[in-house]
Amino acid sequence: MALTAPLFQPLAHIAKVRAAFIARIPGIAVDVDRAAALARLAPSHEEFLSRNGFDPASLATAEQVHGGEAAVAEKPGFYRGVDALVTARRGLTLGIYVADCAAVYLADKNGRAIGLVHSGRAGTEANITGRTIGLMCAEFGLDPADLVVQISPCIRPPLYETDFAKEIASQARAAGAGEILDDGICTGRDPAHYYSYRIERGRTGRMLAVLSLP
Where are the beta strands (DSSP E) in the chain? Predict the structure, then answer.
């Protein structure tokens, strides 16, 4: 698998979590529907995970219905009806697929729990990030001030009508998060490195955001 050097390295300063963002993979034709694109990308995604300390068999993913619900993940698998997952289970890898929407990484700086959120326009309007922070803190007894939030590359104005990344940051701040990070990368401006649903008119691949507690 030929991957370009990562331009976005999430939560690199948090030693107690393992995070990655798999961007565009050169050489794989993804001008098909979502299911077919994911099937073509799966072997390369699994290889990346294995090479970077993640167990592909430990992956927990959300259905991603563009809503406002989150779930507590206790084991690998597919969680229906939700757009975010949180866990305190060590060795479990949370995964979110994106192609213009944001993957929002949530990490307790003391390594007690993590969360991963899919938030585009609709999810942001539903305050999925704020709601997931609330679930995380209630479920695991965390102080939101101990949370680090990082927003992945996503589409932004002027290529998109709304700045949902800015709103995600505001929601995280309102929920009490202690540190909020956003590199400001626009997926639509760099299709050589990122898949963009809008720029590629819906026929494209998906980046994979992953997060785990080693």
Answer: 18-22, 59-62, 70-72, 77-79, 84-87, 93-98, 102-108, 114-119, 147-151, 179-182, 207-212
Distance CA 212, CA 214 (A): 6
Mean pLDDT value of segment 164-181: 98
H helix runs in the chain, sequence order: 34-51, 121-125, 128-140, 164-174
The pair of three-digit structure tokens given for residue 150, joined into one six-digit string: 């990082």
Domain of residue 23, CATH code: 3.60.140.10
In a domain, 10, yes or no: no
| Interatomic CA distance for residues 42 and 206, integer angstroms | 10
Q: Is residue 98 in a domain?
A: yes
pLDDT tens sequence across 46-66: 999 999 999 999 999 999 999
Structure tokens, 85: 């997952």
Number of domains composing the chain: 1
- Is residue 90 a part of any domain in this protein? yes
CB-CB contact of 187 with 196 (8 Å):
yes
* pLDDT at residue 7, rounded to an integer: 77
Structural domain that includes position 181: 18-212
- Residue 9, domain member (yes or no): no
**Please, are residues 107 and 86 in contact by the beta-carbon 8 Å criterion?**
no
